[in-house]
Design brief:
This protein has 9 helices and 7 strands. The protein has 257 residues and is of the alpha/beta class. It has a 7-stranded parallel β-sheet, with helices on both faces. The longest helix has 30 residues.
């Protein structure tokens, strides 16, 4: 039995571990062939564990030459790029936004926002403008809310969410563009948010656990499939209900009339 993504090729940036690897695994399980990237050789090692449907390529998300070469490798090796997942992310800028070094803010912006535009433009001009496809950007619930010390990261994710809508408008009807916005997920990038106090964090989430990379992978596989064929310009929140708690805590209690 063929999967919902059979005969399609995906490129996933930042796919050597964590959410990126889980996305690649979900896409392969759905029948897709996947080109996985990372700035070091981690993508090659991760791809080796997924079999012949996966190919690892060393390409830093912000390196224009390496990114273009990766897209051409996908075309040469698998014949197309039907799915792009802009997953690569960074958070080197921690602290109040007005106190963070501008160089760190610039780095965060470059990786989290501009790299997604770079890869989108590359696949659009190389393949999708003629053949169609789907693009999924990995945002964050931080792009929908405010939080202490994560201002630079959250601003870039907010920009990515808006860019998702803009690109969905511009690239239709050939290409669907959506985003997912995870909450706290068990990844190395987010360790500071959960590692030393996971039970306490989970207790504040309605579904009583932090997210797993596979939760995000499953959502991306859905958005990449024809099951989401009439969905574009949307951001799917995957947070176990985390934002519900934030919303409830900011709503004034009602009083009897």
């Amino acid at each position: 039995m063929s999967g919902p993504l059979e005969a399609r090729t995906a490129v996933v940036t930042g796919a050597s571990r964590g959410i990126g690897l889980a996305i690649a695994e979900a896409l392969v399980a759905g029948g897709a062939r996947v080109v996985m990237t990372s700035r070091g050789d981690g993508a090659q090692q991760a791809a080796a564990g997924l079999g012949e449907r996966a190919l690892g390529v060393q390409a830093h998300a912000t390196d224009q030459v390496a990114a273009a070469a990766c897209v051409q490798t996908a075309l040469a090796h698998f014949g197309g790029v039907d799915i792009l997942v802009n997953n690569a992310g960074a958070n080197p800028a921690f602290g109040p936004l007005v106190d963070v070094e501008l160089a760190r803010v610039s780095k965060t912006l470059e990786v989290n926002l501009l790299a997604s535009l770079l890869w989108t433009a590359l696949v659009w001009h190389a393949y999708m403008s003629e053949h169609g496809g789907t693009i999924i950007n990995i945002a964050s619930i931080g792009g929908l809310d405010v939080a202490p010390n994560l201002g630079a990261y959250n601003v870039t994710k907010a920009g990515l969410i808006h860019m998702t809508r803009q690109l969905a408008f511009e690239l239709a009807p050939k290409v669907r563009v959506n985003a997912v916005a995870p909450g706290v997920v068990r990844t190395r990038l987010a360790e500071a948010l959960w590692k030393e106090h996971e039970q306490a964090v989970a207790a504040e989430i309605p579904l009583q656990r932090i997210g797993e990379p596979a939760d995000v992978g499953a959502a991306v596989a859905f958005l990449a499939s024809d099951q989401a064929g009439w969905v574009t310009g949307e951001t799917l929140v995957i947070d176990g209900g985390q934002r519900l708690v934030r919303s409830a805590s900011s709503t004034p209690a009602s009083t009897p009339a």
